[in-house]
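I'm stuck. Please check this protein.
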Amino acid sequence: MIFDELTEFNKDLKKLIKKYRSLPDDLGVVKKVLEVTPDERPPFSFRIDNLGVESCIIKVK
């Protein structure tokens, strides 16, 4: 599975990592869960449709 991140996300992530030290580990856990069961889990995550791409896009809050 390939995880793509927006450049805006990466910029914000750098700032947030300074404040929340466990954030990289937490993101790793989210990625592992999505690799095993790539389904949306409302209200924490949801699928984004109608973008004109064939792959599945899930937005995580």
